[in-house]
Structures are given as C-alpha cells and as structure tokens.
Amino acid sequence: MNENEMFQKPFFDFLTKRKSQEQVLYGMMEVLNLRKGACYKRINGETALTTAELVKLANHFQVSLDGIFQADNYISFQHSFAQNKTTFDPLSQFSFFSRPLNNPQSSKLTYLANELPVFYYFSHQYIYNFLSSIWRHMHSSESKLIIEENPNVPIQLETIRREISSYYAGHPVTEIWNSNMFANLFQQIIFSITIRAFKNEAYVRNLMDDVKKLFNHLHELAMSGTTVRDNKSGSERMIYLNEYGNFLNMVLYESDKFNATCIGYDMPQFIVSYNPAFYNFSKDWIQKIRRRSVLISSDGFQYREMFFIKMEQDLKSFEDKVEKLMAVYY
Q1: pTM (global) more than 0.85
Q2: β-strands 250-255, 107-112: how paired?
Q3: Of 158, 151, 89, 92, nearest in space to 122 by CA
Q4: What is the number of other CB atoms lying within 10 angstroms of the CB of residue 168?
Q5: How many CA atoms are closer than 13 Å to the CA of 282, on its beta-carbon side?
Q6: Cα–Cα distance, 90 to 268 (Å, whole number)
Q7: Any idea where the domains of the chain sit in the sequence?
Q8: 1 CB contacts (<8 Å, ≥6 apart)?
Q9: Does the pLDDT of residue 12 top 70, yes or no?
Q10: What is the pLDDT of residues 148-182, one digit of tens each?
Q11: 236, 172 in Cβ contact below 8 A?
Q12: Nearest to 119 by CA among 147, 153, 158, 160
C-alpha cells in the first residue's frame, strides 16, 4: 500500500459508510469538477488528493477530518449550527438528528432520557407548538414571548410527524425513563402562565388536554411494548425505569454501517460524534445503567403500575396548580 492509499482509503471508506459509492463518486465529480476516471484514481489512491480537494469533499459531505484521521483520544463532534444560520431552527435541528435513521440497513437506538423523549411531542400539536414557541423565544431577539395558535405549525408538524413515524417509531428502541421526565414541561407551562405568555385561556385548555392525551399514550405504549406505525404495530419498545444517572438526554444510534453518539439534541449546542471509542464508552455506561434499572414495558406490570400511579399523582397536582394560576392570571 502506497502513502496515498494509506491516507485516502480511510477517508473514502468513511464517506461510503454514510453515502452510497455512487453518491460519493458523483459528488466528487461535481465538487472537484473532475471526470469519472480521475475520481476513481483518487479513490483508489493512484492520484493524491490535494489539501484543497480534501477540505472541499469534507465540507460537501459534512464530515469531520478530525474524526477520520485523529486518534481515538481526540474526540470531534458534528453540529448543525455550522450551516450559516443566524437563528435556531428546531425543525432543522430535529431533521439533522433523525437523518441517520433513514438508512435502510438494520439499526437500533438506545435513549437515556433526562426529560421525556422529545419525539413523543410531535403528534401533539399544542405541546409541540408550545415548545417551538419557547425554543424560538430563547434563541431569537424577540423580547416578549407570545404563545398562540400558529397556522403554519400543522403543515410543518405533519412533515416532522411523518418523518418521526417512519424513522423513530420504525426502529427498535430501548428507553430509560425517570419519574421527573415531565417536570421541565410542567414548570415551563406554569411559568408561562405567571408571565401571561399565553395569548388566551383557550390555548391553555387545549394544551392541558394534549398533556393528558400524551400521558395516556405513554401508558398504552408501556403496556404493549410496541409502537404504532400506520395504524398497525411498529417496532419493539423496551422501556426501563431508573432514577439514577439521568443527567442529560443521550441517544446511541447503532447500525451495520456506523455508530453515533448524540447528546443534548434539543439544544442549539447539541453534538453528534462518530468516534468509536467515545461511542463504546457511552454504550458501556448506559448498559450499566440499564442493568441497574427495572423493566416497565410489556411484562413489567408491577413496576409499571407503581410508576404510573406516581406519574398520575404528579399530573393531578400539576392540573390543580394550573387551575389556581389560571384563576389569578387569566
């Protein structure tokens, strides 16, 4: 193996794990303005890639040169704010996160949830619109938060909902929940009432109905242990309960082609790493947490009922507090 092959082979192997060989070839032809034969010579190591060509290809295919060539003790992360956007776009954020799930090869997810996995919100219009308003407010220059019906949301929501139905619900997923995973949503709603962020009382009522529907959906999901996809059973959902170790939202994506570690996907600073050592370390840690957890889906009847009794009490307390606050502020 000559020196060109030694350095270029890992680069093109990395690309073809994420794109088809045809996409890599025609992408090279377009970006480098080369003929097919000249591209093959670079792929095979017969012709050396210049530094400019290497950088152009890395930018075009959105891969990190650090992640390919650096040793495992050097961790590189991919992020979505590198797309020259001045505002935080949650729809693009989640699309960026879920893109690997579109790969047709065998794959699975492991989800360590600090908060309720955000993908459950997409089929609940008022919750999703509420959270979108919060995200836009936190990452824009607008001084006042106004939460109201948004006629543009249903179309956007339906697009995202279909993607999540196809990607997330269509994959085997192991989730580790905790009894405080609704706490942040509850506190955000309460705080929004006290600052009169809701434009009218009707939206709050619809939002509360959505919260109850979501709660019932989670209970049904835990009982069946399977997702619903296109009005029929989807993929297996293994749900565990653990009150330790849930410090942040972390998702491990495992497939035949590549593995990825995603952290803090619902923040503008969220990171995705394809580093094998980082993935293996994260996987080992989550597996330890899972082994120290209790199963609450399917056959985990006793722990599931205890968990949802506690969650139902929290929901009732939250509803009572909302009613009292609404009487004062609205």
Answers
A1: no
A2: antiparallel
A3: 158
A4: 25
A5: 26
A6: 8
A7: 3-63, 80-329
A8: 9, 45
A9: yes
A10: 987 666 676 667 667 766 677 777 889 999 999 99
A11: yes
A12: 160
